[in-house]
Each structure stands twice: as structure tokens, then as C-alpha cells.
Design brief:
five-stranded mixed β-sheet, alpha+beta, two-stranded antiparallel ribbon
């Protein structure tokens, strides 16, 4: 574990809230917390008739009479319906008509489903998306050790939180994208998905967020950054985004969230130049986990120093 359990809790609170803090406490069993959150929100919305949204349409019934019916076929309804069934709680809240309509549609990309409806419904949609993302992490981690699973989960949490913060809370006049998709050339086009992209009329900054147990290596007795794979990946991101946006100042950052032990041992790597191609400058930055608010403050300071 690199990111403490307390900071992980803060990260989940932040992802599920429109604010940096939330009054609700959670434990370390994240999947169970998400299940309970989804069930509670679904029950509350169902009682207020706000769970499934539908558009009223005029239709002819079997007697050729005009009747008013609701069309429930939309991605947010399907996401909620599928998630409730996944956690064995779906049939409590959907009638036969809703079930029939929603069983006829498929979701191509649940991560891109927009939040809609009341504040509680938007929170439910966030919770459902997080539930499936966390489920994917669990599936990807099958066969891996507990330590490897923890690092995958912590890295995902850090990416999600800093991506959301960049879009919603960053103080600078920068446009932000979180995990935009770009397609490389060639017959089998590789999908390039940088964690964070910040830009204005002059600047373009590509940030890749990582959580590792080890970030170092030694070359000829000198301390160096340990992952050339990350360097080449971010180098590709910079090239692709540069071609698209044509900014004067283009930079890449590999940003590691680290614990005090890693920072004490390898803090001298802070700000290290890890550039591969001269026209695609890239640096390594470290932020120590001292709580989520501290991580956000240091992230602010990092952006200010770079731009």
C-alpha cells in the first residue's frame, strides 16, 4: 500500500460528492460501501418517483385508442437498472414495462453516460459508474497478489480524483480533459488515453498519474526513474496531442503519488528531466500522500510552477 486507507476514503468521498469532503464515513471495503450507497440512493429516489426518468409519448393501444405511455429507453436508466440487478436489488424498483424496455438496449460505454436528474440521481449515476470501474479493477487483478491489487486500485483512485479536480476545481484559467481518447495511426490503431490534459491558447500539459511501490533504478551508479515504458507512453501522448492542438509550450509530466518512505528515499528525483525527444519535454514529479487536501494543494503548486 502506498496511499493510506484514510486518504483512499477521502478520495472515494470526493468522487461521490460535488464537494471535496462529505459527511458520510466509509470503511476500507469499497465495493460493499458502493453497494450500500447505490441501494440507499435507489430506494430514496424510487419513493420520490425520481429513479427512472421517462418521456411521455402518445401511442395507439390494441383498441386503436390514443394513450399516454412513457419511454424509459435511455443510457442512465439502463446503467441504474443493470447495476441494481448486479447487486441483486433490481426488481424492487422497476415495473414490468420498465424492465421490458430496458432489457432491449445495451450500453456501449458506461463511463461516458452523463449525469442527469436531481442531485441524488446524479450521485447514484456516479456511484454506479464507480461500482463497475471498481469491478473491472478486481477482474484485472485476478491472479495477482493483494499488494499488486492494492497498487492498481490506488493508481486508479489517484487518476480519477486528479482528473475530476482538474476539470472542476483547478484555479487556473485552463481547459481540462480527463482521459480523452485519441487513436494512433496504422492498421491496428492504438487507443491513446492520457490521464489529464490541460491547455489554453499557448500551453499544453499532458499529465500521467501513477502509484508505484518502486519508482527508481540505478544506471552507472546514478539514481534514475525506473520506468522507460511510462516515458515512451507519455512521449506518444505528447506527440499525438501536439499534432491536434498546436501549442507553443507543450510539456509532459509523469506524476507519482508516493508515501513518506518513497519520498524520503527518492525525493531527489523530484523534477527530474526524463525527456526522450527534445521537442517533447517531460519531467517527473512526486507528491507525498499527506491527505487529499494536501495532494490537491501540491498539484495546484505543481501546475503553477510548470505554467
Amino acid at each position: 500500500m502506498v496511499i493510506s486507507i484514510e486518504t483512499q476514503k477521502e478520495m472515494y468521498r470526493y468522487l461521490l460528492s460535488d464537494k471535496k469532503t462529505n459527511i458520510r464515513n466509509i470503511d476500507s471495503n469499497i465495493q460493499e460501501f458502493l453497494r450500500l450507497t447505490i441501494k440507499e440512493l435507489a430506494k430514496k429516489l424510487y419513493l420520490r418517483t425520481e429513479l427512472y426518468i421517462g418521456k411521455v409519448q402518445l401511442q395507439l393501444d390494441e383498441n386503436n385508442k390514443v394513450v399516454r405511455k412513457k419511454n424509459y429507453k435511455c443510457d442512465s436508466n439502463k446503467l441504474i437498472y443493470d447495476t441494481l440487478h448486479e447487486i441483486k436489488n433490481g426488481t424492487d424498483f422497476a415495473n414490468k414495462d420498465i424492465e421490458k424496455q430496458l432489457q432491449e438496449i445495451d450500453i456501449d460505454d458506461y463511463e461516458s453516460i452523463p449525469e442527469s436528474g436531481t442531485a441524488d440521481r446524479k450521485k447514484l449515476i456516479k456511484s454506479c459508474i464507480l461500482y463497475y470501474q471498481h469491478k473491472e479493477i478486481t477482474e484485472v487483478s485476478k491472479g495477482k497478489s493483494t499488494e499488486e491489487y492494492d497498487i492498481i486500485k490506488e493508481s486508479w483512485l489517484a487518476e480519477q480524483c486528479l482528473g475530476k479536480y482538474s476539470i472542476n476545481d483547478l484555479d487556473y484559467e485552463l481547459k481540462a480533459k480527463s482521459q480523452p481518447k485519441y487513436y494512433g495511426g496504422g492498421k491496428y490503431a492504438q487507443v491513446l488515453k492520457p490521464d489529464i490534459q490541460l491547455y489554453d491558447k499557448d500551453n499544453l500539459l499532458i499529465i500521467d498519474v501513477k502509484v508505484y511501490k518502486n519508482i527508481h533504478t540505478y544506471s552507472h551508479g546514478q539514481l534514475k526513474y525506473g520506468s522507460n515504458a511510462n516515458r515512451f507512453q507519455v512521449n506518444s501522448y505528447i506527440g499525438k496531442c501536439s499534432d491536434k492542438y498546436h501549442r507553443d509550450n507543450v510539456q509532459g509530466v509523469i506524476l507519482h503519488i508516493v508515501n513518506s518512505d518513497i519520498m524520503n528515499k527518492y525525493g531527489e528525483l523530484q523534477g527530474a528531466d526524463i525527456t526522450i525527444e527534445n521537442d517533447r519535454p517531460m519531467k517527473l514529479w512526486l507528491i507525498e500522500d499527506k491527505g487529499l487536501d494536501y495532494i490537491f494543494r501540491e498539484y495546484d503548486r505543481l501546475i503553477e510552477n510548470i505554467l
